[in-house]
Amino acid sequence: MKRRICREYIEEIERLERSIRELEEEIIELRMQLKLKVDEVNRLAIENASLRHKLEMQKKTYQRMVELLKKMKFPIILLPDDE
């Protein structure tokens, strides 16, 4: 009787140890995935900032060109952005 009970406990302990190892491996995998996602978010944030800067520079260049053409009294027609 004792042997049977001990054997059951030992089997349960071994099963729990396997479960712990599997969970540890899963945690490692999830940490790696999280690191990759954080890296991707950081890369996209940098790219977004760069694109915003480029857009601002293009807007400023456009405004300077319009002002220059106005000063030169060059005939221009300004259309709304959606056209």
State the distance separating the first and last CA atoms: 88 Å
Specify the overall morphology: rod-shaped
Percent of residues in β-strands: under 5%
Helix content: over 70%
Rounded to an integer, what's the Rg over CA atoms? 33 Å
Low-confidence stretches: none
Could you report the average pLDDT, rounded to the nearest whole number? 91
Biggest sheet statistics: none
The structural class is mainly alpha
Number of helices: 1
* Total number of beta strands: 0
Question: What is the N-to-C order of secondary-structure elements (H for helix, E for strand)?
Answer: H
Could you explain the architecture of this structure?
- The model has no long low-confidence stretch (mean pLDDT 91).
- It is built from one helix and no strands.
- The chain is mostly helical.
- It is rod-shaped, with a radius of gyration of 33 Å.
Kindly summarize this structure in a few lines.
This protein has one helix and no strands. By secondary structure, the protein is mainly alpha-helical.
Topology (elements, then pairings):
Elements (H helix, E strand, L loop, with lengths): L1 H70 L12
List keywords for this structure.
0% strand; single chain; 83 residues; mainly alpha; rod-shaped
